[in-house]
C-alpha cells in the first residue's frame, strides 16, 4: 500500500509589511519574494534605479496596507520565501502588479501562471508597455 502525504503550504500573515521594492517585502522576520513577479530594481548604492522601480514599489505599498497573507510555494537562493500573496486591497497581489504593467511575469519560474495578467497590461499599454 502506498501512503499519500499532503503537506500544507506555509502561510505567512502580517499587517502592513515593510516593502523593499516592487517584488520583495518583509512580514516581521520573514523575507518574501513574490512568486512569478519581476519588478524593476530600486537604487542600490551607486547603481541607479531602473525605470518605474519606485512606481512599482509604491504600488506594492498600497496593495499591502492592512492585513496581508502569503502562501509559500518555494524558497530562493537567498533564503527568502517565494509566495503568492493577497491582502485587504487585492485578492492576488502578484497578478495586480503584473496587470499594472509596473512588473513583468517571471516566466522562468511561473511557467505562464500570470500570462493573462501580462497580456492585459500589454493590450491596455499600462506601465512599461
UniProtKB/TrEMBL annotation:
Designated name of the protein: Nuclease
Pfam annotation, one family: SNase
Gene3D superfamilies registered for this protein in UniProt: 2.40.50.90
Taxonomic source organism: Caulobacter vibrioides
TNase-like domain residues: 18-129
SMART domains in the record: SNc
Amino acid at each position: 500500500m502506498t501512503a499519500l502525504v499532503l503537506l500544507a503550504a506555509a502561510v505567512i500573515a502580517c499587517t502592513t509589511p515593510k516593502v523593499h521594492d516592487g517584488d520583495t517585502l518583509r512580514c516581521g522576520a520573514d523575507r518574501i519574494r513574490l512568486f512569478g513577479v519581476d519588478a524593476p530594481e530600486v537604487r542600490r548604492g551607486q547603481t541607479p534605479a531602473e525605470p518605474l522601480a519606485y512606481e512599482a514599489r509604491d504600488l506594492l505599498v498600497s496593495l499591502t496596507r492592512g492585513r496581508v497573507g502569503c502562501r509559500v510555494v518555494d524558497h530562493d537562493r537567498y533564503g527568502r520565501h517565494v509566495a503568492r500573496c493577497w491582502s485587504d486591497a487585492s485578492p492576488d497581489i502578484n497578478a495586480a502588479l503584473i496587470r499594472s504593467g509596473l512588473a513583468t511575469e517571471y516566466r522562468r519560474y511561473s511557467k505562464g501562471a500570470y500570462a493573462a495578467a501580462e497580456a492585459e497590461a500589454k493590450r491596455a499599454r499600462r506601465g512599461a508597455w
